[in-house]
Amino acid sequence: MSDTTGLQQVPPGGGDGNVLGDKIVEALKGVYDPEIPVNIYDLGLIYKVDIADDGAVNVDMTLTAPGCPVAETFPGIVERTLESVEGVSVAHVELVWDPPWTMERMTEEARLELGLM
User: φ and ψ at 105, to 5 degrees?
Assistant: First the structure.
């Protein structure tokens, strides 16, 4: 998806054929929640990914609980992971708490992996 400001949003299902968007989704799938053995993308922790024309990436993400012990450090880990993707010039990750995360945000694959289906 693209808008008039030069931003592209990565849709919830993936990069939708956009090469950089696909690479970003793949990178996010390589970052795992420290308490649940599922990647943060399939876990549903990524709420929004915006990609600017200059390769700047802004991500809104949440955690499974506001009191999560990695709340201080995890956004930096995600930023460094995204900045290692070819085509990404800089990444900024913002922790958001609204809407709160629920298990319904997980992909079918994540639910299967955790034995919830």
Answer: -80, -15
The pLDDT score that the predictor gives to residue 2 is: 39
* Number of domains forming the structure of the chain: 1
Distances (CA, A) of 38 to 41, 58, 115: 8, 22, 12
Is the pTM higher than 0.90? no
Q: Is residue 2 part of a domain?
A: no
Sign of the CA dihedral running 81, 87, 60, 103:
negative
Looking up residue 74, the CATH number of its domain turns out to be 3.30.300.130
Q: What is the pLDDT of residues 24-46, one digit of tens each?
A: 999 999 999 988 889 999 999 99
Domain presence at residue 56: yes
A 10 A CB-CB count for 97 gives 10
- Asked if 59 contacts 46 with a C-beta cutoff of 8 angstroms, the reply is yes
Domain range for 56 is 7-113
98's CB contacts (< 8 A; 6+ apart) are none
